[in-house]
Design brief:
single chain, alpha+beta, Flavocytochrome C3, Chain A, domain 2, three-stranded antiparallel sheet, two-stranded antiparallel ribbon, 18 helices, 33% helix, 10% strand, disordered N terminus
Length: 414
């Protein structure tokens, strides 16, 4: 065979071999396509969120396990991996800054000490459980750990396994243990509604507004209900999916009381600025269980960190109380124990009066009181910064440069 003919054959065959897909590459594409189409046959709602999004090419198996068993028998549910590190695989800077520990900050700051921000807090709020220990919050990575061990929450029965765990962020039960012993100086003021701000681990089990639902063993409940929920379902603090939809990669709301205030009651995203409210579209997405409404999220048409942060950084009623007109007790079976007033301080008393709710009576004067907590977003409304278009993220989660010099969002809460 002449060199000329050999050269011509190579010129034709080699490009053809390069263009022809390898068995491995072809198989991978086939599996992804089959997996997605198989899942979408039943999960059309998920397809509507995912199609055309930045996550459209991600296979369902990225976050869901045991899919083959589920496809063979739909009654066998797949496992959903809610570990924050899953998002960290593609978003390493955001994950690393979220979990990083600021060793220059203090481990704990009690608000009611003589040198702290609220030295008379305990006297003003007696006998509310929050007077037993009311610390300055640490970063999001410590939310569940700090919630479980604070004296006011669970009677002091949950403690760090050792002092060395004080700066361990993340997974709850790696740092905390149930001692089985309650402390006389502690209170049991926490309930299951509290946990919906502290973690996203129970998102698939929590029914809308915490109403009793035959499809779940979770609902609004007191201290025992919260302990049950934490031990059975919770490992991680608030996750990325609290604010970022894992299917559509869009900003979202998962906190049901905020969805209820903005959409169900029609108060709007900015209740004191209808024009600004009209510029932000929240679309409620309802998920069914046994063909009946079970839980809901709300997708934003654009990012608005004021709303995303308002899932937790607001005044809320999330504990038992009483009706100030009748004196009748209000228990956790009442929706008013999972309620966002969604008004500023000027209207808060009027709003609670209309709702017929007070948190507690003062231990000395007997006066009916509202236990206000962290109304950061409502305080921000109408401020010069809010009017100028500044959002929470501009200061607390700003754009910075990562190790490669690329702009990325800092997630450690400055």
């Amino acid at each position: 065979m002449s060199k000329k003919i050999l050269f011509l054959l190579m010129a034709v065959i080699v490009p053809a071999l390069i263009a022809y897909p390898s068995p491995g590459r072809s198989q991978k594409k086939t599996v992804q396509k089959k997996e997605g189409s198989s899942c979408y046959a039943c999960h059309e709602l998920i397809q509507s969120l995912k199609d055309g999004s930045k996550h459209a090419s991600l296979p369902c198996s990225k976050c869901h396990n045991r899919l083959n068993e589920h496809l063979k028998d739909p009654e066998k549910p797949p496992e959903t991996n809610l570990e924050l590190s899953v998002c960290g695989q593609c978003h390493p800077f955001q994950y690393e800054t979220l979990m990083a520990v600021n060793l220059k900050s203090k481990a704990k700051v009690e608000k009611s000490t003589t040198t702290s921000r609220s030295p008379t807090f305990d006297k003003l709020m007696t006998p509310h459980g929050f007077t037993r220990e009311h610390d300055e919050p640490r970063s999001h990575a410590f939310m569940m750990i700090d919630h479980m061990i604070v004296d006011r929450a669970y009677g002091g029965k949950f403690q760090l396994k050792s002092w060395k765990e004080m700066n361990r962020p993340g997974r709850l039960w790696e740092a905390v243990t149930d001692t089985g012993k309650e402390l006389p100086q502690a209170a049991k003021a926490a309930n299951s509604v509290c946990l919906t701000c502290k973690t996203t681990d129970a998102i698939l089990k929590w029914p809308y507004m915490g109403d009793p639902n035959p499809a779940s063993d979770l609902k609004r409940g007191g201290n025992p209900a919260a302990i049950y929920m934490a031990k059975k379902y919770i490992k991680n603090p608030m996750g990325c999916i609290h604010c970022h939809d894992p299917h559509g990669a869009k900003p979202r709301i998962v906190r049901d009381a905020l969805i209820h205030a903005v959409l169900d009651r029609g108060d709007g995203a900015y209740p004191y600025d209808k024009a600004k409210s009209s510029k932000v579209t929240m679309t409620q997405v309802e998920f069914l269980r046994n063909d009946k409404p079970f839980r809901a999220i709300a997708i934003l048409d654009q990012s608005d960190s004021n709303l995303l942060c308002a899932q937790c950084h607001v005044e809320c009623a999330c504990n038992p109380g009483f009706d100030p007109k009748t004196g009748a007790a209000i228990g956790m079976d009442d929706r008013r124990t999972n309620y966002f007033p969604w008004v500023n301080v000027m209207d808060i008393q009027k709003t609670y009066a209309e709702a017929g709710f007070k948190d507690f009576r003062h231990g000395v004067t007997g006066a009916p009181l509202t236990k206000l907590q962290h109304p950061e977003v409502e305080t921000f409304w109408g401020s010069k910064h809010e009017r100028a278009g500044v959002e929470c993220r501009d200061c607390h989660m700003p754009k910075v440069k990562d190790k490669k010099g690329k702009a990325a969002t800092f997630h450690g809460q400055k």
